[in-house]
Write a structure and sequence with these properties.
By secondary structure, the protein is of the alpha/beta class. It has helices at 2-10, 113-117, 121-130, 143-147, 169-176, 178-192, 206-216, 238-246, 266-276, 308-314, 369-373, 380-388, 392-398, 409-413, 420-430; strands at 21-23, 28-32, 40-43, 50-51, 56-61, 66-70, 75-84, 90-98, 155-159, 196-202, 224-229, 261-265, 284-290, 298-303, 324-328, 335-337, 350-355. The protein folds into three domains: 2-106 and 282-355, no CATH class; 113-276, NADH-ubiquinone oxidoreductase 51kDa subunit (Rossmann fold, 3-Layer(aba) Sandwich), CATH 3.40.50.11540; 369-430, no CATH class. The strands form four sheets. A six-stranded mixed β-sheet has the order 1-14-13-17-15-16, sandwiched between helices. The protein has a four-stranded antiparallel β-sheet with strand order 2-8-7-4, with no helix packed on it. The protein has a four-stranded parallel β-sheet with strand order 11-10-9-12. 46% of the residues are buried.
């Protein structure tokens, strides 16, 4: 019975069939001043200032781009505090007390269909840049950069695979807002000049297929098709998804755009719709909280900046006094948290809370499981040895560490319970 229960948690069934619970009135929101792509940032507000939803309250500085910080509630600026970011690092956040009036900044007025039809590619780029839209599946890469390239795009591929165990936030988003997804695809095709869109979902999700195909009847003039791809991990890796759905092999180090393909995540596409049509930045998102350490696994619709502690309380709290393992993001590629004092950022998809199980790391037995399971064809044990020996040359050249996507398969399949993915992460840093 215990094994069966664990299997249910693992295959998402506790959350993907339940309606999303809306929680859009937290007492406070916390917005990161910096993030993993922007090492520095500045604030335009001070304690005591009143802000409105969508108001630009700061600016993050990246290596080749800047990213506005938008208020996600209306209310009063309290100050700055330290909390855990989705990267797992303690980060400075600006704290805003929510007045729960939902007052939008005056500049956010929706665009008419006639206005949108006249938008040029450059207009789309400026809007997405101004609204700070990023990859909401977890990449956090600025979306406007994907739209400003000069490569001709034939196909827009929508990544709706959501291949990591436990996660179902995008699943629910498709079921509940298929119209927004279609509209987002329409605008993205207009901006890119793409001739068609392929929405990629796992074969086993008949509910998604039925919903999307039914919704497409409302958009008969849009060249959109639904493609059912494999039920395995990491099918959501864009290179694997493109190969399965389109039959195109993307060489390592080559951007899909060079082959006439542009990839967007489901949540990013809906965010694009809101930026173009509603003229609004991302202020809320779907978020999954699940695992065998939480009382009621649930999908929530929350304000960006909501405290994880508040969401845990809404989900019934912890179900026991056992030590917990907390992962912000998916269980394969997410960041481990040392405590629950974390915040839901734009790119947070989920939090997995598990009752701790002790594992003892043993010596490598040369079984080859990590090699056989690596989707990039790498040799994780040799990477581990190179990291231990600080052999930067081997990591860069012989072992091709740059091709590692940190999918976690090597750690997951290791019979000796060696944390190989962590060595790969260190190896990528050493090879810079």
């Amino acid at each position: 019975m215990i094994a069966k229960t664990r299997e249910i948690y693992r295959d998402k069934r506790l959350t993907n069939s339940l309606p999303t619970v809306r929680f859009l009135d937290p007492e406070y929101v916390y917005l990161a001043v910096t993030n993993q792509r922007c090492a520095t940032g500045e604030l335009y507000v001070k304690p005591g200032d009143h802000v409105k939803m969508g108001q630009k309250i700061g600016l993050r500085h990246g290596p080749f781009f800047e990213q506005p910080i938008h208020a996600t509630v209306s209310g009063e600026v309290v100050g700055t505090v330290k909390k855990f970011h989705r990267s797992g690092k303690l980060t400075e956040f600006v704290q805003i007390k929510n007045d729960k009036k939902e007052e939008w900044d005056e500049e956010y007025k929706p665009r008419t269909d006639e206005e949108i039809a006249k938008l040029t590619k450059e207009d789309f780029v400026e809007i997405l840049k101004d609204k700070a839209l990023v990859g909401l599946g977890g990449s956090s890469f600025p979306t406007y950069i994907k739209f400003q390239g000069n490569d001709p795009i034939e196909t827009l591929a929508i990544n709706a695979v959501e291949c990591e165990p436990y996660l179902s936030a995008d699943h629910r988003l498709i079921l509940e807002f298929p119209d927004l997804l279609m509209q987002g695809c329409k605008y993205a095709m207009q901006a890119l000049g793409a001739k068609r869109t392929v929405i990629c979902i796992k074969k086993k999700y008949q509910d998604l297929y039925d919903t999307l195909t039914a919704e497409l009847t409302r958009f008969p003039n849009l060249p959109i098709e639904v493609c059912r791809v494999g039920n395995y991990y990491p099918q959501g890796w864009e290179i694997e998804m493109i190969k399965t759905a389109l039959g195109v092999k993307v060489p390592a180090g080559v951007l899909p755009a060079k082959l006439g393909i542009q990839v967007l995540n489901v949540s990013t596409t809906v965010g694009l719709y809101r930026a173009i049509k509603q003229n609004r930045p991302v202020v809320e998102r779907n978020f999954t909280i699940t695992g065998d350490g939480i009382t009621t696994p649930t999908n929530f619709r929350v304000k960006v900046g909501t405290s994880l502690q508040e969401i845990i309380t809404l989900a019934g709290g912890y179900n026991s006094d056992d030590n917990k393992v907390m992962i912000l993001g998916g269980p394969m590629m997410g960041a481990n948290l040392v405590r629950d004092d974390a915040v839901v950022t734009k790119t947070c998809t989920s939090c997995i809370i598990m009752n701790e199980k002790k594992y003892t790391e043993e010596p490598c037995v040369r079984c080859g499981s990590c090699v056989y399971s690596c989707p990039a064809g790498l040799q994780p044990v040799q990477i581990m040895q190179a990291v231990k020996n600080n052999d930067k040359d081997a990591l860069k050249n012989k072992l091709n560490i740059k091709s590692c996507i940190l999918c976690g398969m090597c750690s997951y399949t290791c019979t000796s319970k060696i944390h190989l993915t962590e060595y790969c992460r260190k190896g990528k840093k050493l090879a810079l």
